[in-house]
Design a protein that fits this description.
Elements lengths: L1 H16 L2 H8 L3 H34 L1 H33 L1 H36 L18
């Protein structure tokens, strides 16, 4: 019964939009303006058709019980997310109180400093090697056996 009413609305809308008085007024307009008016009329019909479809969809959702099911599902996921956030808060608080986070920060700081020292030593070695190479000096021989000398007969 609702579909017949919706179909009547669409038919009435089409009749109103393309009534003879408005058609004669539109035909008197310049071509570019007339084309725009026609495009707007078509758009109006499309909007009305989508409104009817949306109304029918909302009615079907309501009658099928989907909306309450969706609301329950959203509530359940919200509760789960809340519980996860609470657990994360408790865990982070425990980590902070146990001093683990401070230990991690100190360890990271020490690691950064060690890397900086290693890089600086590497730069100094590279500068020394470059200076020796440019001056023609031979590098000192290492007294430690290298990987090739160790275990090779």
């Amino acid at each position: 019964m609702g579909q017949k009413k919706d179909a009547q609305i669409t038919d009435e809308s089409k009749e109103n939009i393309s009534s003879p008085s408005s058609a004669s007024q539109v035909s008197e307009l310049p071509e570019p303006v007339r084309q725009k008016v026609e495009a707007i009329k078509e758009l109006t019909l499309t909007i009305k058709e989508y409104a009817i479809m949306a109304r029918e969809t909302a009615k079907a959702l309501r009658e099928s019980g989907t909306i309450p099911e969706l609301a329950i599902a959203v509530r359940e996921i919200a509760i789960v997310i809340r519980d996860i956030a609470k657990e994360a808060k408790v865990a982070s608080k425990e980590l902070k109180e146990s001093g683990v986070t401070d230990e991690i920060a100190a360890s990271a700081s020490e690691t950064v400093q060690s890397v900086k020292d290693t890089v600086q030593t590497g730069k100094e070695i590279a500068e020394s090697a470059q200076s020796n190479f440019q001056s023609g000096k031979q590098p000192p021989l290492s007294k430690k056996p290298g990987p090739a000398a160790a275990g090779v007969k």
